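Allow me, if you will, to draw on your knowledge of protein folds for a short while. I have a record of one protein: its chain in single-letter code and its fold written as discrete structure tokens. I should value your view on which stretches of the chain appear to form regular backbone elements. Thank you for your consideration; the sequence and its tokens are set out here:
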Amino acid sequence: MVCARQVFRCFKWLERAGDRITGAAGPYFVALAVILISLCSVSFFTVVQPGFQFPWLSTPPCILLAVNLVMHYYYVCTVPPGFVDDPPRHSGSNFMWASPSRPQRPLRTSGVRWTSPEIEIVRAHITRCKRCGQMRPERAHHCRICNKCVLKYDHHCPVRINQCVGLHNERHFVLFMAYLVLATLCFSFLGYPYALDALGMTYLPWTHPLPQLCFILSYILSVVMSRGETSVEAQDHEVYRNIAKGRGEAFINSYDMGNLALFFNVGPKGYPLYTLFFPFRIMPYSDGSSWARREGLQRHHGVREGEELTDEEDEEEP
């Protein structure tokens, strides 16, 4: 028992050391990501795009794709995720902010900017974080690297964005990943013949201004970069699913509305659909104190009171 406790403490020390190292190296990772995105963009527009048969038709969508990729990456790196102790946020008035489809109500009591009869809004349960002492609503988690509780915490991403993904930048992160996958797939497919040229496999002279090595590196990067992310809630829900299965019950995620319009905050009562295709900033539908749930569910089905996972369980010793 003593040996197991020492091993546990050793792993926790290594974990905290890793957190400090990744936190300190975060700005360098972001700088590297900016360089790689720039390299891939230059490679595409100097080598692949000039070979399009109908450039007047195909170039504008490529430019729009690149602009969305770059701007959503800028947003997800610069927009704070939303900490529990932050003051209330309001939308901006400059050209980077989209206007809602209709005036949205102020956040006074419900904690949401709009809703509809088919959506049930439930006030979030409040608990106290044992790490920082903050009172926080459900779906907020404590980030070890930031040492703060983050609203609708998804994960801390030191490699790509050097901060947490939370309530206020989650939408930009998802759109950045979507446009990243789309851009890398297009580059991988359209750049394949040019990659063969750069490798010398076609015996054709390389006449492009970009060095062959730079194009090969950017092409390989595009092929391997098409991957997604998981979240802390997805990990929790897997645990809940096993708990419910052990009792012969089915786990139902009460937050899963099957409603992407609500997540992206678009539609008649949210923001226009064009905000999905142009990189405007918008506000989330909730301030983190209330959440839309499935009708009739005040908590996850199959999970009983007291079985919800907390951040503190990671610190328990065997």
Remarks:
- Residues 11 and 17 are 10 Å apart (CA to CA).
- The mean pLDDT is 80.
